[in-house]
Specification:
heterodimer; A: alpha/beta; 7-stranded mixed beta sheet; 26 strands; 21% helix; B: alpha+beta; CPE0013-like fold; 2 domains; 3-stranded antiparallel beta sheet; 37% strand; elongated; binds flavin-adenine dinucleotide; binds iron/sulfur cluster
């Protein structure tokens, strides 16, 4: 069996940044395994601009952002295998993978970084019984068809869900000559970024109907019309509010979920809120030497944070490979509550943590003029004022090592939303 | 006097801004929380611009399509003309990031450039 210091599963922005960082931190034998025919991950189909504002201080398109990291990995001469699907990861860090040239093969790794990204939530998005004619696509599938394969899925479009990919596709298909008739969103707020609502919908006078859902799809072979209706606070359609739109295409943009099959089979503990692994401050899962970063850990909306998180994962994996497991005497648990849905990480080893640690999370509702309060056990430590918070935008706080260590008996950090 | 309503995209707050115009001149901006909103609103009502992204066909390459963007912002009113100008454009691999795909998109004086490397197949 081949052995490597570090195997990275997934060659998207997370995998690439993790690989570069591990190499820069002194790890020589690294291998990236990617199932696609090229590196770059989902960014290859995100051809719109708006990536990299934080990292490069300029607005890049998805492929341009990816190419900067691909170049870095190539310059660092980090080996990678394309068209290679990882089938299994075992708790003793044996990776089983498959491709056309090598067939099925196994690699023994000292450490593994999971960077498989996310997939779209598809099933369960449409709560209506019955037959599904052709013409129903997830927004991400439509994005791949239009941008990579050059094929337009339809001419008259209704979109269910106002996640960013749906908004981006509303603009993309409009520019390609389709008529996007309406975007219906079940929640009373959009799941997408404000900038996308303005530049993808308002620019083209595409209506966004909040608190609306699809109640009927007509058509035997192909979608012919879609009926939407307003929903009440119980999310049930209100009779009499139905509106019928003739169309040949229905796009579903109902959120993303970490790709977690491999993690589950390896025995990695998953967080039921994020569907990604539970990790401590060094991004290590419950299995020693297996780390996670990027969308496989929790769904990000800004790729810059993916790269940042992945660079930490690479550095931490390097430290594990060189120094072995840290004998942490102390663990502090982070407890999310009152509007804070989860945190990454969910625990901290105060003695070994980085000097300054970013804790990222999402809120469960729209909050105006509130604060993010941090408690060390029962003592209020900090309040961060936020004029507005929404489930569609990730929030963060920072924890400083020296402050944490000035509380020798600390056992729980609570993060919650409070009225200002 | 004319009033225009906009949503600022400067930050997640998304302030609703009202711009008052007199004979095409901005006389008042309200609703913004910070200076950035004022700058955005003035530009947005007098000279709104956008980067346009799209993709065009490639022959002889490892991918069927190559993604492109306007090298700089173009006037918002020209978005459709710019994408229409790409309709019949086909390029031959290899293509490098930054290669000019179409000069002077729809008379804007701004070219479309490639945003992805596509190697020649083979
Ligand atoms: C359809 C879609 C559209 C998106 N559009 C946007 C957008 O417009 N703007 C934005 O900011 N963010 C967007 N995102 C979020 C985007 O995914 C992140 O910003 C970023 O790409 C996450 O990087 P990543 O490396 O974690 O995941 P990815 O980019 O998804 O990379 C994961 C990689 O792992 C590979 N992989 C997965 N499983 C295996 C396996 N078993 N074996 C081998 N390889 C494997 C995949 O092929 C992929 O290349 C989108 C996500 C999706 C799913
Ligand atoms: S005006 Fe300022 S605070 Fe309001 S959305 Fe724009 S940038 Fe944000």
């Amino acid at each position: 069996m081949n052995t490597y210091d570090l195997v990275i599963i997934g060659g998207g922005p997370a995998g690439l940044a993790a690989a570069a960082s591990a190499k820069e931190n002194g790890i020589e034998h690294i291998l990236i395994l990617e199932r696609d025919k090229e590196l770059g991950g989902i960014l290859n189909q995100c051809i719109h601009n708006g990536f990299g504002l934080h990292t490069f201080k300029e607005e890049l398109t998805g492929p341009e952002y990816a190419s900067r990291f691909i170049k870095k990995v190539k310059n660092l001469q980090i080996p990678y295998k394309l068209n290679t699907m990882v089938m299994d990861v075992s708790p003793d860090k044996t990776v089983t993978a498959m491709n056309r040239t090598d067939g099925m093969f196994q690699i023994q790794a000292k450490a593994i970084i999971l960077a498989m990204g996310c997939r779209e939530r598809a099933r369960g998005a449409l709560n209506i019984p019955g037959y599904r004619p052709a013409g129903i696509f997830s927004a991400g599938t439509a994005q791949r068809l239009v941008n990579i394969e050059g094929y337009m899925p339809g001419k008259e479009v209704v979109i269910l869900g106002s996640g960013d990919i749906g908004l981006i596709m509303a603009r993309r298909m409009t520019l390609e000559g389709a008529k996007v008739k309406v975007v219906a969103e079940l929640m009373p707020y959009s799941g997408g970024l404000k900038r996308n609502i303005v530049q993808c919908l308002n620019d083209f006078d595409i209506p966004l109907k909040l608190s609306h859902t699809v109640v009927d799809i007509e058509g035997k072979k192909r979608v012919e019309a879609v009926t939407i209706a307003e929903v009440g606070p119980d999310k049930k359609p209100i009779p009499g509010t139905e509106e019928r739109y003739t169309c040949d295409t229905l796009l579903l943009s109902c959120g993303l979920i970490p790709e977690n099959e491999l993690s589950k089979n390896a025995g990695i503990l998953l967080n039921p809120v994020t569907s990604g692994p539970v990790v401590s401050d060094n991004l290590e899962t419950n299995i020693e030497g297996i780390f996670a970063c990027g969308n496989v850990l929790h769904v990000h909306d800004v790729v810059d944070y993916v790269s940042e998180e992945a660079a930490s994962a690479g550095k931490n994996a390097a430290s594990y490979i060189k120094n072995g497991k840290k004998n942490s005497k102390k663990t502090v648990t982070i407890y999310p509550t009152d509007g804070v849905r989860y945190t990454v990480p969910s625990s901290i080893h105060p003695e070994e943590m980085a000097d300054s640690l970013t804790v990222r999370f999402r809120v469960g509702d729209v909050y105006k003029n509130c604060t993010i309060a941090t408690y060390f056990d029962n003592e209020l430590i900090s309040k961060k004022k936020r004029p507005v918070m929404a489930p569609g935008e990730m929030e963060e706080i920072r924890l400083e090592k020296d402050i944490l260590n000035s509380y020798p008996h600390l056992s729980t950090i609570t993060i919650k939303i409070e009225e200002a | 006097m004319e009033k225009k309503e906009l949503t600022c995209i400067g930050c997640p707050l998304g302030c609703s801004i009202t711009v008052t115009l007199e004979q095409g001149e901005v006389t008042n901006v309200t609703g913004n929380t910070c200076k950035r909103g004022d700058i955005y609103a003035r530009k947005e009502v007098t000279n709104p611009t956008r980067i346009v992204t799209s993709s065009v066909k490639v022959t002889g390459g490892t991918s069927a399509m190559v993604s492109v963007k306007t090298k700089e912002d173009i006037p918002k009113s020209k978005i459709f003309d710019c994408t229409a100008a790409l309709k019949d454009v086909t390029v031959t691999a290899p293509v490098k990031i930054g290669d000019i795909i179409l000069e002077n998109a729809a008379g804007t004086g701004i070219p479309f450039i490639a945003t992805k490397n596509v190697d020649a197949a083979g």
